[in-house]
């Protein structure tokens, strides 16, 4: 490429410029600054990125509200009398969600960077050459760059979708009056979490997934159980289904769904997209010599280094596991490697994956399908949570713990469907990370009565050699 003829400047404006202030960028910016380097961050939208503003924090605030509403509705099961049917105050709900976002402190993110001596450049970043970045017409040079620009919603090419109108998860967070009927396209984590939120609030929800089950990347038992739980709540689940057309009909929308060759029509008030994400790569990467894939994102090695040696990338823009915790992990690795000969390498063998529905879903390591495909000889240890004392006292008996181990009993993966599964998964994450045998968990004392006892009980069903 002609741009690659540009030589490294003898003197640069910064040691490091980070593009994006989410978890993938902010962590490295602060780490590098603490090591005495001159750092700048570029942000074209809101400080802090997607997670605290539009993703993890606001959705979990709404999920907490939904869980509280469900608990109130079940109060009579615990001898608590509630007068009248509880109602959702949508304007107040939005204020609660906004308060949760405010409490993260991201609104003061720019001041925080500046107080630490990190320059904040507002605007869209574009590479002029491998060493030069343009932001609002001004040029900045650096010895190293970190790209952490995240993703945006994938809009599937469904006839009539754009003309009829749709919302994404950002718009779904700001309802001051919920639709009576909602159609969600996509049965992954985002689609399932919003199905949980809106169905609990009384919205008639349809959710469609092109794969054979919801949460298709996890073990089939999870998807099948989640589908059954949703249907029990009155959700219409369309799996192995494809939305082939959307039509506008007055103030409503007609969604045409094809399932096993048969087409049905569903009339709703709103359509929500949760069909995946695309990387934000409109950065002039060709001018910097950075290879990328339009669907999978920027190509990096295990050191988070791109095809341009001095440019790194972290977070969702690199594809793979699109979680805040992996973005933070990758950002730490990039920061550690940029100015040091002692290299750290990314290891994704034990990445916890959580879906915060009710009961929660969490998994780590390999799935059974992955082990079968790889030809690994494995064993399974599984128990329902209904056997637990905590299930008895909580009147929550739906869920399970499932462990996967090799023939020697070393843990390879695990799945949990249970209240607080997102907290429970870290014991298994540690075990999978360090290839522990299931017997280590069996001989670890677990407090009674807790949900985590199911982990020890499932581990007891694994044979160790």
Textual characterization of the structure:
The chain is α/β, with parallel strands linked by helices and 465 residues long. It has three domains: 2-52 and 100-152 and 278-338, 3-Layer(bba) Sandwich (FAD/NAD(P)-binding domain); 161-275, 3-Layer(bba) Sandwich (FAD/NAD(P)-binding domain); 353-459, 2-Layer Sandwich (Enolase-like, domain 1), CATH 3.30.390.30. Helix content is 31%, strand content 26%. The protein has helices at residues 23-34, 50-54, 56-73, 90-102, 109-115, 161-164, 169-172, 189-200, 220-232, 285-288, 324-338, 368-373, 389-394, 421-433, 438-442, 453-459, and strands at residues 14-19, 39-43, 119-122, 125-129, 132-135, 138-147, 151-153, 181-185, 204-209, 236-239, 241-249, 252-259, 262-268, 270-273, 277-279, 292-293, 297-298, 311-313, 353-355, 360-365, 378-384, 400-406, 411-418. Strands 1, 2, 3, 4, 5, 6 and 18 form a seven-stranded mixed sheet that branches. Strands 19-20-23-22-21 form a five-stranded antiparallel sheet. Helix 3 (56-73) packs parallel to helix 8 (189-200). It is globular and about 70 Å long. The termini are far apart.
Q: What secondary-structure arrangement, pairings included, does this model have?
A:
Elements: E1 14-19, H1 23-34, E2 39-43, H2 50-54, H3 56-73, H4 90-102, H5 109-115, E3 119-122, E4 125-129, E5 132-135, E6 138-147, E7 151-153, H6 161-164, H7 169-172, E8 181-185, H8 189-200, E9 204-209, H9 220-232, E10 236-239, E11 241-249, E12 252-259, E13 262-268, E14 270-273, E15 277-279, H10 285-288, E16 292-293, E17 297-298, E18 311-313, H11 324-338, E19 353-355, E20 360-365, H12 368-373, E21 378-384, H13 389-394, E22 400-406, E23 411-418, H14 421-433, H15 438-442, H16 453-459
Parallel strand pairs: 1-2, 1-6, 2-3, 6-18, 8-9, 8-14, 9-10
Antiparallel strand pairs: 4-5, 5-6, 7-15, 11-12, 12-13, 16-17, 19-20, 20-23, 21-22, 22-23
Helix pairs in contact: 1-11, 3-4, 3-8
